[in-house]
Amino acid sequence: MSPFLLIVLGALVIAGFLWFNSQPAARKGAAAFKLIFLAVVVTLVVLTVSGRIHWLGGAFAALLILFKKYGFLMRFVPVLNRLFKARKSPPSNTTEMSRTQALDILGLKEPCSRDDIIQAHRKLMQRLHPDQGGNTYLAAQLNAARDCLLEDQS
């Protein structure tokens, strides 16, 4: 191996460790995974370019990069999907909505009848429904506000 290549690889290793140490404690696991992934890809590319492994090894490295970058391709290879899948937990909705919050979300004031609640919910849902260009979070908030107010009505 040439001295120039050793110097470049050493610089990459030092940069990787500095980057890893700059990550917050909560993200160290993901950062370690990224470093290992990058090390495997760089190793495969260097071995392919130096002629130590077949060109199929380089093609495999390129596929790893593509699979990492383009997540939609993961559904075709379930094993890699589990390997590269981001470990994100969905936001928990453990806090209960108060009556005043629900009234604010639907734009209502006390006192309000059951018909007022349903009418305000329908009006807002027509604008904010995901099928109409809104998003699921807003629609879920509207539904939660409606349910909270209607529960208090009964």
Automatic annotation (TrEMBL):
Gene3D superfamilies: DnaJ domain. One of its GO terms (cellular component) is membrane. Keywords: Chaperone, Membrane, Transmembrane, Transmembrane helix. This is J domain-containing protein. It is found in: Membrane. PROSITE patterns: DNAJ_2 (PS50076). It is a single-pass membrane protein.
